[in-house]
Amino acid sequence: MTRGAAVPRPNNRDMGRTTRRRFAMAAALAAATATSCAQPRSTPAPAPLPSLRREVPEAEPSDVVERVVAAHNARRAKAGLSPLALDPGLEAAAAEHARDMADRRKMSHKGGDGSSPFERMKQQGYRYQAAAENVAYGFDDVDAVMAGWLRSPGHRRNILGHFTEIGAGRAIDKDGVSYWCVTFGTPLAR
Fold first, then answer.
1. pLDDT at position 52, please?
2. Mean pLDDT of 97-116
3. Confidence (pLDDT) at 61
4. Which of 14, 44, 116, 173 has a Cα-to-Cα distance from 101 of 20 to 30 A?
5. What is the pLDDT of residue 62?
6. Which residue in 102, 58, 89, 105 sits closest to 168, CA to CA?
7. Burial of 64 (0-12, 13-18, 19+ CB in 10 A)
8. How many other CB atoms are found less than 10 A from the CB of residue 38?
9. 51-56 LR contacts (CB < 8 Å, sep 24+)
């Protein structure tokens, strides 16, 4: 090392990145709303790219959405709960957020525009008395993401919650990493 060369020093935020659990989950309940996020145990969080603008990845075809909904309803049936109906507004909110997370390579309930899950649902015309969102990244298929969500009390609470409708989306970033979003809701009386 040459004299006077700057040695990078880790800051407190960077210190825990390599040692923190790779399967980070968060569940927050506020009034009649909830959000949860998941990542697989074996996949570290991808670093956001610098300010290079990329094309937004495409969302998955509807058969993936159908399999996600079927997996949720199968789990609910095991618990003696009613199935969730696919709602176009919830589906649009979930698909849009999955694409946004993949584009930014960042799993978060906060959208790239600063929106919350509940603002995104309302932007799609969905009016609810209760709503929730589960997000995840890095899981390669429906079975894997469902297993991850079911290991988390917050995610499981949303999956088995007192909701009547669901929306789902998955997008794959340019590196092949999957980003998942599922929205749950019970609409206001129509």
1. 32
2. 95
3. 52
4. 14
5. 63
6. 89
7. middle
8. 26
9. 54/103, 54/174, 56/99, 56/100, 56/102, 56/103
